[in-house]
Amino acid sequence: MVCILLGTGFEEAEALVPADLLRRAKIDVCLAGVDGMSVTGAHGITVAADCSLEQVKVDDLELLFLPGGLGGVDAIQSSSAAMALVEQAHKSGVKLAAICAAPTILSKLGLLEGKQAVCYPSMLDQLTGASTDHGMPVVVDGTIITGEAAGSAFSFGLKLIEVLRGAEKAKKIRDSVYYYG
Prior knowledge:
By secondary structure, the chain is of the alpha/beta class. The protein is 35% helix and 22% strand. It has a single domain, classed as Class I glutamine amidotransferase (GATase) domain (Rossmann fold), CATH 3.40.50. The strands form three sheets. Strands 5-2-1-6-7-11-10 form a seven-stranded mixed β-sheet, with helices on both faces. It has a two-stranded antiparallel sheet with strand order 3-4. Helix 1 runs parallel beside helix 5 (153-165). It is globular.
């Protein structure tokens, strides 16, 4: 299962475009509310979470995904349970994905040390210990996938499908939505 952590102020496109693409690929996705079952994003779109953060079990996870949006990132960082989940997932070998401002969470936990990564361009200096490549929409380094920004949401979602189910499945979904990026 892919779990997407939603905290109040999350960037809607960064969470929902990949969630949609993953579900089209028949990958089980759970939108987990960090601070409630009804979560309002940075642009006023309210989403009903599928489960609460407390219901997420690391043993059920194939990938843990942190969308950006400064409010959403703050909500994750302010939640000891969310931060513990990220650390536990990493220690258990669960793939981690983060886009826009969210890779800074991975950096603060020391998970990007020596890794290639990308994030929102004005925040690249916050990826301590990482080798950053501005202008790349998505970077995969081992079990960590990072994305640049909201504009990378389709590329990011398709890369998640490729990592989880292969290039052929990602191409099938890309073709079905007529994405040419």
